[in-house]
Amino acid sequence: MTPLTLRCAARSDVGRRTNNEDACFASPRLAVVADGVGGAQAGEVASRTVVNALIALDKRTTDQDLTQAVAEGNAAIAFVAERRPEYRGMSTTLAAVTVVSDCYEVANVGDSRVYLLRAGELTQLTRDESLVQELIDAGHLTDAEARRHPQRNFVLRALDGSPGTDPAITTVPARPGDRLLVCSDGLSDVLPDDRIAAVLTTRADRRAAADLLVEQALQAGARDNVTVVVADVEHS
Ligand code: MG
User: Fold this and answer.
1) What's the gap in Å between 35 CA and the centre of ligand 1?
2) Is the pTM of this model over 0.90?
3) Distance of CA 102 from the midpoint of ligand 1 (Å)
4) Which residues pair with 228 in a beta bridge?
5) Which residue, among 182, 178, 179, has the nearest Cα to 227 in the 3D structure?
6) How far is the CA of 150 from the centre of ligand 1 (A)?
7) CA 79 to centroid of ligand 1, rounded, Å
8) How far apart are CA 15 and CA 36, in angstroms?
9) CA-to-CA distance for 52 and 58, rounded, in angstroms?
10) How confident is the model over 147-178, as pLDDT tens digits?
């Protein structure tokens, strides 16, 4: 059997912000979104730094080790923040998916997300590491309430250069015909899962799907940066 590959379309929109602190990358075996936080340009530096570490991983011919690449990205954030006072305190989320033989390996820190659309059904492969997710799990909030919560952007973990911030790793069997979505909270805060699923199932063309997701998020009033990677899984 030929190995599985990702065919990706990526879009990022600044939304109503003045700068885009999201970063993304897509290749035949890796799809990544990072959402940076920090004053001035620092959030952009944090998200770009961790994405660059994953790009370096993507260029290696050996098996990918997401945890190791995330650790390298986190160490690079620490290195930069130590030397440049204006970048101190910067941090970033990370959501990434790679194809390793017949499985997806999914890495997550914070509240960016990876979704799987399989046979018309949308499943979230990551669990948000956020205050509102904890409140949902404890039965104090519904999904809809969480989307309006004043602290909906409060993440419990982020890559800020502190050692030992390993990503949560999930492994899921891969199938040709699957469609993956990696996104920042600029999308998932304003579009509920059923609307995301509707776009992914009705737009066969991944570029059209990516465009429409961003367009619908902006129409729904997204104030944040909106970033999506739509990846179709095929035999290479
Ligand atoms: Mg965001």
Assistant:
1) 5
2) yes
3) 31
4) 11, 183
5) 182
6) 14
7) 24
8) 15
9) 10
10) 889 998 899 999 999 998 999 999 999 999 99
Beta strands in the chain (DSSP E): 4-13, 22-27, 30-37, 91-92, 94-100, 103-109, 113-118, 121-124, 168-173, 179-183, 226-235
User: In this predicted model, what pLDDT tens digit does every residue of 182-223 receive, in sequence order?
Assistant: 999 999 999 999 999 999 999 999 999 999 999 999 999 888
Measured in Å, residue 223 CA sits from the centre of ligand 1 at 9
Report strand pairing: 30-37 vs 22-27: antiparallel
- Rounded to the nearest angstrom, the distance between the alpha carbon of 113 and the centre of ligand 1 is 11
> Ligand 1 centre and the CA of 225: distance in Å?
6
Phi and psi angles of residue 13, each rounded to the nearest 5 degrees, phi first:
-130, 140
At 108, which amino acid appears?
A: N
How many whole angstroms separate alpha carbon 152 and alpha carbon 168? Answer: 20
Q: How close is the Cα of 224 to the center of ligand 1, in Å?
A: 5
The answer to whether 33 touches 112, Cβ cutoff 8 Å, is yes
Residues 6+ apart with CB under 8 A from 70: 50, 53, 54, 94, 96, 107, 109, 159, 166, 167
